[in-house]
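A.,

Following up on our hallway conversation. Structure tokens first:
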């Protein structure tokens, strides 16, 4: 299986070192300069990415560029393999550089939303209702993107140090409009948004659209909710009550119908009109 790795050309320099890409495939190896450089103290050998720290503001751009390059080289390799072509390292290098330099082929932050659209279309084939993803999650991510003031990308989802998750959480807790038309979602609804976001990200990980990263910081919040309801036995007692007043009887019957069907009040009004005619 082909693998993409990144490391520094020289870990011992005091200033900045070039980040190199190593692509191993079919018992061959391609070594390619990424065009990015970083001081060794800001490089994380384990994650093979720039450390996301406030004192080094270039981490988001570089890490996003490394992810784009990783996807590109895998795509070029895969496309040629599908056509029965196994490129030698030098030929593969030329093809990658050619596509990377082409404006039409440059992978940008639009990758996130293009991928999200692909995810929604996939869910459309597996679920009868995708509004939790196509409506709710999309709406909330777009709103948070606007508040954050920058296009969404996978690097922003990776951890809390860049500030996006905090703004997303604050928006859901205090700004998002709930079903009552008020600002602020319930804890369980917020938890549902994080759960759906995790489903999307795990889908991306499985397809190697973006390198895997921990999702522990995306907390799926929940709380117990007290549900007030009547049991079937209690409803039967109400139903069996002998009521002489026709109006009270209608109210009782509508209450029973509401409990059994979950009708909205606006639907009750139509039922009242029909029943009132019979009483008259």
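Then the amino acids I'd put at each of the 280 positions:
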């Amino acid at each position: 299986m082909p693998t993409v790795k990144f490391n520094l050309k020289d870990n011992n320099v005091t200033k900045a070192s070039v980040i190199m890409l190593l692509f191993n495939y079919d018992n061959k190896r391609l070594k390619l300069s990424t065009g990015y450089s970083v001081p060794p103290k800001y490089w994380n050998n384990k994650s093979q990415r720039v450390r996301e720290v406030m004192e080094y503001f270039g981490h988001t751009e570089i890490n996003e560029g490394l992810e784009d390059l990783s996807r590109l080289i895998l795509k070029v390799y895969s496309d040629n393999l599908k056509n029965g072509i196994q490129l030698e390292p030098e030929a593969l290098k030329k093809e990658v550089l050619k596509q990377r330099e082409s404006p039409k082929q440059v992978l940008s932050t639009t990758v996130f939303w293009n991928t999200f659209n692909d995810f929604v279309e996939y869910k459309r084939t597996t679920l009868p209702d995708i509004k939790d993803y196509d409506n709710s999650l999309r709406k909330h991510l777009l709103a948070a993107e606007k508040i954050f003031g920058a296009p969404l990308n996978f690097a922003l989802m990776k951890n809390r140090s860049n500030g996006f998750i905090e703004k997303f959480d604050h928006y859901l807790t205090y700004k998002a409009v709930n079903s009552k038309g008020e600002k602020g979602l319930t804890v369980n609804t917020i938890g549902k948004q994080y759960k759906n976001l995790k489903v999307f990200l795990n889908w991306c990980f499985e397809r190697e659209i973006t390198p895997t990263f921990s999702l522990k910081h995306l907390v799926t919040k929940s709380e117990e909710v007290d549900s007030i309801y009547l049991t079937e036995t209690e409803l039967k007692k109400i139903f069996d009550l002998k009521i002489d007043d026709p109006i009270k009887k209608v109210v009782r019957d509508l209450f029973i119908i509401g409990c059994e069907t979950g009708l909205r009040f606006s639907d009750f009004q139509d039922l009242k009109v029909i029943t009132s005619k019979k009483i008259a």
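The two ends are 80 Å apart (CA to CA). Curious whether your intuition agrees with the design.

B.
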